[in-house]
Amino acid sequence: KILILDFGSQYTQLIARRVRETNVYCELHPWDMSEADIRAMNPSGIILSGGPNSVTEGDTPRAPQVVFELGVPVLGICYGMQTMAAQLGGAVENGLVREFGYAEIRAQGHSSLLKDIQDRVSDQGHGLIDVWMSHGDKVTALPAGFSVIASNPTTPIAGMADEARRFYALQFHPEVTHTHQGTAMLARFVHDICGCGHDWNMPDYISEAVEKIRAQVGGDEVILGLSGGVDSSVAAALLHRAIGTQLTCVFVDNGLLRLNEAEQVMETFAQNLGVKVIHVDASAEFLHHLAGVTDPEQKRKIIGREFVEVFQRESAKLSQAKWLAQGTIYPDVIESAGGKNKKAHTIKSHHNVGGLPDTMHLKLLEPLRELFKDEVRELGVQLGLPPAMVYRHPFPGPGLGVRILGEVKKEYADLLRRADAIFMEELNATVDEAGKSWYAKTSQAFVVFLPVKSVGVMGDGRTYEWVVSLRAVQTQDFMTAHWAHLPYELLGRVSNRIINEVRGINRVVYDISGKPPATIEWE
Ligand code: XMP
């Protein structure tokens, strides 16, 4: 396995995903991981990520010295290269200009890292590689034992290697897709240089995970809060594969779900897969507690609190349960371990099915803790979940509660559900030449209910009805997002259908705000 030490680059998770795509297991840890933990992990190779700091400044992160003493191959990327150079006796200087974007580099010498990797060959017969650069500092003097393996006029030392010690470093980013040969470079490092096999694959993972869950749980009963979202659904399917009827899922209908969502969850899990699911219809209770409340944070807190209450009440009936399973995935683990990079302000108090207090005296079972989102999806498909469920857009814990602005009422939720279903239908039905739907081309799309009435005319009559807004965004990480440039024809069709089919709505608008400054959800 490969250890990736995180120096805080926005691309660090991508390194881990690329390595996993080469079928090698890797783990991401903060750069200041202890020597004992690094030794205990016994990695076959170590990758040092990029980061926002400058090694030319005093108090910035350095790799633990043990990284260079273990005798395993090390690959430094960007800041990782700079700290490697600085720590091993080379020199790094603060560049006057930042280099950001595409660059063409020439592979030099015959390093085992870059040998035969190229996009083109120059007139002089040199291999040329298109890479993605994002740096201010650069290495200006090699440490002893190193030679240059890649360069261009702006960055004469764009790559360096000490073949004897198997230390390699790249100033550019092989982990981003803009560096087309990047995956080949990472594959070269983990397979050829570190000697890792192709051991990380889904079928093997399933059988290992099943064994592990069985060993951990024994004959105990397990409960899981099933939300219908990807993570809890895949966790349920995996646990069911492992322990069958020892698993009981609790599915809470809070009255703020999408059209037919409860039915779909029950059909997929209870009927098709044979999972034990307790379906709790708590919608009246949720709506009762939300009556008269208009403040977004207040609404979120009420929905979160109600969920915990209902879930605890239901699970108390399962007196045999010893384990609480949750669909925590690897990015959640990394985020909560991160600490230092935490956002200072709470923009919204997020609530997930995961957020249960530890007063339940249950042991925690997190079977997806090691997986990235795309791996969770692949796992879900292999476990037989419908692709439409596995590839569904994310849906917030508080559900339609944050998509009905101001006070939540059943009447509004019912109108919103129908409008939203029409939007989803049209997004799915509008497919390009490559067969890709607009649903697939957007990261998240939904309808928002605005408690505003406007005047309209239908037939010969005046109408005075509600307004809804369509929202569709494209994003990689949901931290920043662009509004999707949906075709006018598609927007027109959705608007017509909503106004014609959903009596009570006579106006549809489209939200053209990016994040920032807006957020994706309206509340
Ligand atoms: P915002 O609105 O903050 O949303 O731009 C970013 C992403 O987070 C989702 N979201 C939530 N997810 N519980 C969740 O599980 C929540 O309370 C919650 N609030 C927002 C939102 O749908 C988007 O994908």
UniProtKB/TrEMBL annotation:
Annotated residues that bind ATP are located at S227, G228, G229, V230, D231, S232, S233
Give the domain of life: Bacteria
Q: What is its EC number?
A: 6.3.5.2
Name one molecular function that GO assigns to this entry: GMP synthase activity
Q: Which reaction does it catalyse?
A: XMP + L-glutamine + ATP + H2O = GMP + L-glutamate + AMP + diphosphate + 2 H(+)
Q: Which GO terms describe its cellular component?
A: cytosol
Q: ATP-binding: is it a keyword of this entry?
A: yes
**Family annotation (InterPro entries):** Class_I_gatase-like, GATASE, GMP_synth_C, GMP_synth_GATase, GMP_synthase, GMPS_ATP_PPase_dom, NAD/GMP_synthase, Rossmann-like_a/b/a_fold
**Does the record's keyword annotation contain Ligase?**
yes
Its biological function?
Catalyzes the synthesis of GMP from XMP.
Query: Known NCBIfam families for this protein?
Result: guaA_Cterm, guaA_Nterm, PRK00074.1
The protein depicted here goes by the name: GMP synthase [glutamine-hydrolyzing]
The species this protein belongs to is Gallionella capsiferriformans (strain ES-2) (Gallionella ferruginea capsiferriformans (strain ES-2))
Q: List the lineage, top down.
A: Bacteria, Pseudomonadati, Pseudomonadota, Betaproteobacteria, Nitrosomonadales
Gene of origin? Answer: guaA
